[in-house]
Write a structure and sequence with these properties.
Elements: H1 5-29, H2 38-50, H3 55-67, H4 75-95, H5 97-112, H6 121-133, H7 135-145, H8 154-181, E1 188-190, E2 200-205, E3 208-213, H9 218-233
Antiparallel strand pairs: 1-3, 2-3
Length: 238
């Protein structure tokens, strides 16, 4: 069953509102509420069901999101991520490329949250919620905007844009550290006790302390999602 314009607006609207709220919280506090993306998962799951997305897709989507509430530093988190990825790869051959590949990307995002070294778990929750919710857009509206969009799942374009926006955060961090330290440090900076504990984390390697700017990754995620929607509906793949 095709996705109608009201369902599409609902998914995009809830996604953008959730990300905007998350970005504000991330900038101010460097934290994102655990429950923030539950409305998006609920909206996305209901619409996935209404437009006849395969039920196994919806089940894995919901289970992956629920699993993000586990502690990320325990073996169970890693094991679940690997199991989800293996199942997703198998489903590429059963459900088809669009659904299986989206689940594989979703599983990889889940795995990237292990120990939260790459992304905070709030960021992972947001990405998973969006990947699972936008699946019907790729199937229902792809050929309406661009032939290439019927080949590349929207989830692929989204992850590509997220990677691009995240990479841009490094030069931004360098500029911020240039103002603070007088020199561009892209990741680790000399340790200073007078820095804001909200904006800077303390890292210890050996016996030496370093300061590290806490990037509010909700901002690049919001920018990546907005860029994806704009480029998709304008008929551009990137």
């Amino acid at each position: 069953m095709p996705l109608n314009e009201y369902e599409m607006i609902a998914v995009i609207g809830v996604a953008l509102v959730s990300l905007i709220l998350g970005s504000v919280s991330d900038v101010k506090k460097r934290t994102v509420k655990s429950y923030l993306f539950i409305p998006l998962v609920a909206t996305g799951s209901v619409i996935d069901y209404l437009v006849s997305i395969p039920f196994i897709f919806i089940v894995i989507f919901i289970l992956a999101f629920i699993a993000t509430f586990l502690r990320t530093d325990i073996p169970l988190y890693l094991i679940l991520g690997v199991v989800l990825l293996v199942i997703s790869i198998i489903l590429i051959f059963i459900l088809g490329f669009f659904y299986g590949f989206t689940l594989a990307l979703l599983s990889l995002m889940f795995l990237s949250g292990y120990t939260e070294k790459l992304f905070g778990i709030g960021d992972i929750k947001g990405i998973i919620a969006i990947l699972g919710s936008i699946a019907p857009i790729s199937i229902s509206a792809a050929t309406d905007y661009s032939y290439l969009n019927s080949i590349f799942p929207l989830s692929f374009l989204l992850v590509m844009n997220l990677g691009f926006m995240s990479a841009l955060s490094f030069p931004v961090v360098g500029v911020i550290n240039k103002k603070t330290f007088g020199k561009m440090y892209f990741i680790y900076s000399p340790f200073r006790e007078d820095l804001s504990q909200i904006k800077y984390a303390t890292k210890i390697f050996g016996n030496k302390k370093y300061s590290m700017y806490r990037v509010p990754f909700m901002l690049p995620i919001l920018a990546g999602v907005a860029l994806t929607f704009l480029s998709y509906f304008s008929g551009v793949i990137f």
